[in-house]
Amino acid sequence: MDQVVIGGGDSKPMDEGVGSATSGATSGATSSTSGPSRGGEGGPTKPAAAAKRKSSEAAKRKSSTGVKRKSGTPAATKPKKARKKARFGAGPGYTVQEGEDMLLLISNTGHQDHLAWRPLKKKKKMTTAAKKKTTSSGKGKLKTHAQRKKKKPAAAKPGVNLGAPTLRERSNGVAEESPLRAPKDLDHRWGQSLPEEVLVSIFQMIVVQDGAIPFLCRVSRVCRLWNTAAASPGLWRSVSMGFCWITPSKTQTPRTEEKIKNTIGWLASDRFSQLKEFTLNHWKKNVDYAVKVVSQSCPQLASLNLSYCTGVTGQAFLSLAENSPSLQSINMQYSEYQVEGLAQLLKTNGGKIRKFLFTHGSRNDMLLAALSRGCCPDLEFLEINWNVQKGGFCELPIHIQALQHGCPKLKTFRLLNVVLGRKTIRNAEVSALGFPQLEELCMATSSSCPTSDRDLLDLLLASPKLRVLDLRGCFYISAPGLAALPCEELECLFWGQYFNSKCNSWPPPARKDLHKLTEKWSRSLRELDLANQLFSEEDLELALGHLARAPDAGTLRSLNLSGTRISAPALRLIIQQSTALSYLNVTSCRNLPRGQKRVHRGHEEISQLLVALQ
């Protein structure tokens, strides 16, 4: 049979072949049709059947050879080839766990082959025709949001082994155990099985660093065990509450105030049974209510700190006097309060007060009078400061001899931007009393103050135990006046001048005889601050020579020579002998080489400075 080509440029062979086959089939069909009419037989004749077989075989050959068809002829269906399934090898026979400094490989040979990791099968995408067909037939309806949100269980990743067996579902629907991931119901078991004493110890370390509030309030909402551990009374011994629920600049609504009161009341009754230190910072309202509730519910209250608070009335102090017999420390710095109520508290409960801090104001004379009359005979710590934002310093109208008589056990006396008034009393016996137990005196100011050697001697007339002396800003204190003090074991002397440009017009006193100080305290000095002191180069070299040649020269740890005339040889000598020196400030020292006039911290930097000076 001739080859048939469809869709080519020449169509004559095709027409001849088709025409011959058609003519044969037509003649056969005619003869077969005419046969029965003449002979009366019902079946087709043999030539007609043979022509029919030939035409069917020709059609099969055309479809099998992939011959292109014309637009009018029906298409022959091609059988689809079955896709070969991808064969994946078995997963890794080990599990990788990350340690502190190494990777651990754990063999999985004990498990069966069906526990090995297998990759997830890719989902087949439906074509547009198939989507239309399923939508029109009604069998495939659109999934709802809840149905789409359901996720299949994620396959376990190789290398992740949490140690606890889990259940996973195989392709045949049978559940099996897998060691590759822990079950969800065991994820939080470590928190439930942890002993309560261990949790309390962990919470205690965090409370010491960050405070009880809001940490304990937050962890108590984790679970019942954590709630029980956070309710331990030992964790609530020191509580500090700052800005309460709202921004300070905004006003509190009645609903917010009610919520604040309810919270404070619940804390005081259920958590503050062993409270000893209570602090309120920047509270503008409800201060009275908080102090009353805490004083009534906390009989062990020993320290009260109300800083930057307003609206403290006499009712709060009265409640403290009635319900807080163990109160020993009161801090009222930068707060607005009723002075009469606080003075009355000092009179009634002043015998147990050990620590008192307040900011000096126009009406604080009643507090100073109460201290001078001996209302707090066991007072050990007294700090009086001045608001620097108001500028300069203030003068404290108090008889220093009367204060020495009223507070004979005072150990720490701090006057920050406050200058003692130059007033004395006639009783010579009281003036000779002094502060025999005083260990720290601070008279630092941010600007130059007129404190003289005589004022300093009146304060430290009988203070042989003095260890810390802070005279920063005391411009008229001289070296001979310091050498005349009765203390023999001074450890820290801060005598730097940190003043503004307005103080430069004051006539500076003669700066000399610094060696008398270093010779007297060479064995005990650990920190020395001489910033911006106008001593000569020879005087500084002589003074530092006494420190370097002292038998206990290794005790010096901090030295501030900023803005002085120290020379390189004198500095090299003190560095070589002071083996414990860890802080050295030589900024703005003109006699030193460039690149070294800075702050040196640590033994390594100080050793590098020594090499540079040589």
- Strand adjacency order, main sheet: 5-6-7-8-9-10-12-14-15-16-17-18-19-20
Shape: flat
Q: Calculate the mean pLDDT score and round it.
A: 75
Rounded to an integer in angstroms, the radius of gyration calculated over CA atoms is 49 Å
What is the first-to-last residue Cα distance?
114 Å
Number of strands: 20
- What helical percentage do the residues reach? 25-40%
Q: Which residues sit in consecutive blocks of at least 5 with pLDDT less than 50? A: 1-44, 64-71, 109-117, 156-182
Main beta sheet, described? 14 strands, mixed
Number of helices: 21
Which structural class best describes the helix and strand composition?
alpha/beta
Strand content: 5-15%
Tell me what you see in this structure.
With 614 residues, the protein is of the alpha/beta class. Strand 6, helix 10 and strand 7 form a beta-alpha-beta unit. It starts with 11 loop residues before the first helix and ends with a helix.
List keywords for this structure.
614 residues; alpha/beta; 14-stranded mixed beta sheet; two-stranded antiparallel ribbon; 21 helices; 20 strands; 35% helix; disordered N terminus
Summarize the structure.
The chain has 614 residues and is of the alpha/beta class. 35% of the residues lie in helices and 13% in strands.
Provide the fold topology.
Layout: H1 12-39, H2 46-64, E1 94-98, E2 103-107, H3 128-137, H4 145-149, E3 166-169, E4 175-178, H5 189-193, H6 196-210, H7 215-219, H8 224-230, E5 238-241, H9 254-270, E6 277-281, H10 287-297, E7 303-307, H11 314-323, E8 329-332, H12 339-349, E9 355-359, H13 365-372, E10 381-385, E11 394-396, H14 400-406, E12 412-416, E13 418-420, H15 428-431, E14 440-442, H16 453-459, E15 468-470, H17 479-483, E16 492-494, H18 515-520, E17 527-529, H19 537-548, E18 558-560, H20 568-577, E19 583-585, E20 599-601, H21 602-613
Parallel strand pairs: 5-6, 6-7, 7-8, 8-9, 9-10, 10-12, 11-13, 12-14, 14-15, 15-16, 16-17, 17-18, 18-19
Antiparallel strand pairs: 1-2, 3-4, 19-20
Helix pairs in contact: 1-2, 6-8, 9-10, 10-11, 11-12, 12-13, 19-20, 20-21
